[in-house]
Amino acid sequence: MSFTPPTWPAMPNEAQRTLKAFLAQLKKQIGPEIQAIVLFGSLARGDYISGRSNLNVMLLVTKVGRELLERCGQLQRRWGKEGIVAPLVFTEDELRSFLELFPLECIEIKEHHVLLHGPDPFSDLHINDRNLLIQCEQEIRGNLLRVRQRFVEGWGRPEAIQVLLSLSLTAVIPCIRGIFRLLGQSGAGTLQEILNRLAPTLKLDPAIFQEVLNMKRGLSSPGPIELPQLFERYLSGLELLIEGIHTLKTEGRL
User: Fold this and answer.
1) At what angle do helices 66-79 and 13-30 cross, to 10 degrees?
2) Are strands 88-90 and 113-117 parallel, antiparallel or unpaired?
3) Burial classification of residue 32, based on how many CB atoms lie within 10 Å of its CB (0-12 exposed, 13-18 middle, 19 or more buried)
4) Alpha carbons 254 and 243: distance in angstroms, whole number
């Protein structure tokens, strides 16, 4: 059984080398039980940054049991230090059930993935729009509460603010993609492309989210004086995003 796709997508050489070596060991330790292997996340979206981004893989297997998970754990002990995140492991039936409860995560992978082995498990999966809207709203409102809570937990320290803003933006972007899809637009594109579409689509100034993205990517380094102000602007941005979604619902567009 070959785990090497006929044509590798464009990606940094070191990422390709890591993936090929990982797949070779995956074949050796788990091979017969694997139905499909899917690459998702930043590398599949085109947002991968060498030295900063991780490699995300999903395994579709015939059966999930302790022994298989232990073998995955042995692999992870070796490859986690190379930037490969512990894989998501599903059976086909579990993936379909997951789709009903977590449509946002599934549509993210469905629209931004690279098939590394086997038949594409996302080719015939369909997303329920109502479930997607409910999850997008829940995630964004929950994100706002978590940002406030983490600020308190971190005592408002600049280093805590930097971490919580980066985590929050990472969680919010998929929700914005989901809202675009519900409006009949494409949710595809890099993080930068998604932010650029905030103004025309949601009438929301992307500047504050851009600031956090630049910080997350290491392109800017706000100091201890600027970070509390950035936090305050970001909170306002999240609140405006929630208001914008509420307005779209009131207008019957969502």
Assistant:
1) 150
2) unpaired
3) exposed
4) 13
Indicate the domain borders of the chain: 13-117, 129-250
Ordered DSSP codes for 195-206: HHTHHHHH---T
- Separation between Cα atoms, residue 131 and residue 149, nearest integer Å: 27
DSSP state of 185: S
% of the chain residues with pLDDT over 90: 76
CATH homologous superfamily of 13-117: Beta Polymerase, domain 2 (3.30.460.10)
| Residue burial 127-145, b: 16+ Cβ < 10 Å; e: rest | beeebbbebbbebbeebbe
Strand locations in the chain (E)? 34-40, 56-61, 88-90, 113-117
Q: What is the pLDDT of residue 2?
A: 56
pLDDT higher than 80, residue 210: yes
Q: 59, 88 in Cβ contact below 8 A?
A: yes
Which tokens sit at 87?
């894989």
Taking the C-alpha atoms of residue 249 and residue 254, their distance in angstroms, rounded to an integer, is: 5
